[in-house]
Fold this sequence. Notes:
Blueprint: E1 8-10, E2 16-18, E3 23-27, H1 32-49, E4 52-58, E5 72-77, H2 95-119, E6 132-138, H3 142-150, E7 155-159, H4 163-170, H5 172-177, H6 188-191, H7 214-229, E8 234-236, H8 240-254, E9 259-261, H9 265-268, H10 282-288, E10 295-299, H11 308-321, E11 325-328, H12 346-353, H13 358-362, E12 366-369, H14 374-379, E13 383-388, H15 392-400, E14 405-407, H16 414-424, E15 428-430, H17 438-450, H18 452-471, H19 477-491
Parallel strand pairs: 3-4, 3-6, 4-5, 6-7, 7-8, 8-9, 10-11, 10-13, 11-12, 13-14, 14-15
Antiparallel strand pairs: 1-2
Helix pairs in contact: 2-3, 2-7, 4-8, 11-17, 17-18
Uridine-5'-diphosphate (UDP) binds at residues 31-33, 36, 275, 299, 301-304, 328, 371-372, 374-375, 391-394, 397.
Organism: Zea mays
Keywords: Glycosyltransferase, Transferase
Protein name: UDP-glycosyltransferase 76C1
Amino acid sequence: MATAAVPASRTGSGGVVRRRRRRVLMFPLPFQGHLNPMLQLAGALHARGGLDITVFHATFNAPDPARHPPGYRFVPVGDGVPSADLVPSGVDADIPGALLRINRRLREPFRDCLRQALALPEDDGDEGGAPPACLVVDSNLRGMQLVAEELGVPTLVLRTGAAACLVAYLAFPALCDKGLLPPTSKDKSQLDIPLDGLTPLRLRDMVFSPTTTHANMTECLKCLVDATRSCSGVIFNTFRDLEDSDLQRIANGVVGVPIYPVGPLHKISPCTEDSLLAPDRACLEWLDKQEADSVLYVSFGSLARVDGKELLEIAWGLADSKMPFLWVLRHGLLVNSSSSDDDDDQDKVRRLLLPGGFEEATRGRGVVVPWVPQQEVLRHRAVGGFWTHSGWNSTLESVCEGVPMMCRPQFADQMINTRYVQEVWRVGFELDGDQLERRKIAGAVTKLLCTEEGRRMRQRARDLRDKAIECVQEEGASKSAIQLLIDRIASF
Ligand code: UDP
């Protein structure tokens, strides 16, 4: 078999191992918070391991090939499958329902695409090149993993969430067997029951969303757990110093395969994210003019939504706080909004969504934009706090820049992340309550930005940031895990 250009890698004893060039196949979930870590992982494997990359992807939320180096191939899967079938919608979007549909609808098309990729001749320029070593698949894509198994391709699974979240999901069946899940009432005393062995989680943190059926949730988590147990290794976008005890629990046999904590991936592999929306960069110039640690950054990620009443409370809460803020009002954030990415004048659309008098009340100290370069925003010295929905990427990005958080989780793993932010790392707090209220919002902003308590949270976040930086240094824990992963891939 011909061998293509070979990257050399150093061994522990200083020797050099010559390796046959290999290709890694990848299949991310088509959502922003899943695409970014997969592409960052691709960047690390390509740059450090000299591996060629093939990215299989859904045709909606598709990555942009132009943003990636030569050696990458992008293969659309499921042309003709209507995206409306696959995208979650509604204020409490049924994401598990969408995940199950994605697996069902893309599985057959993927089989064809994978067969074709495996049949390509080796070393045939762009069309073939290095032979595939394995498939790295998002942990939510069990259907694609099964296809790979059928065709004899080894798989690795990428978990884009916290290790703590996987530990919680692994406990889901036992909680159902005990009769705790699904909860039988909405009574606070029942929902606040602490979960044995899952401190600091409560029963309510395990309820995915009010609109997800228990059947969908159970099936979805079974697929996820099966995926992690059936693969050759689980890759985590987290770092040892942040989640040592949960990583230890997983490594000590909960999953039964090797684990690779290689995060934070955006620090291992900067500049490789693939933003699905065009970021507003002018906001960085505005931040340049603000005082250090004075600005609240507000964003609820790419999927969370709010209704009109909540939007109003957010707007007046920010206005009443009297603090400077940068607010991402994403197209589609508002449920039932008639605006879309195609609307020509997004400034006008935003003005229509915001309440009358808001602009005047916040002029000079508030900026509202549809999308920002979030990592750069969080890194900016002016940003003193982050009001987040507690998606895992946002949580990790905030921790890695030493920015404390006020959290308003909505669904999925967001409640679990919030509990860790508040109770374990103590770098933020939950903005709780059934309804968002402007008075509570303004109070929370003040607590985060202007009090001794907020300052202590910032200090703890900065300590974690320093540990994250150590982990991604050359001999750091995450860099070492990347090298182990590359060695594993080379062994297939
Ligand atoms: N993001 C961004 N610009 C924005 C808002 C979000 O680049 O204006 C990115 C953010 O940096 C993060 C991702 O979108 O990497 C959101 O992922 P997360 O897991 O936090 O939430 P999700 O969107 O999956 O709910």
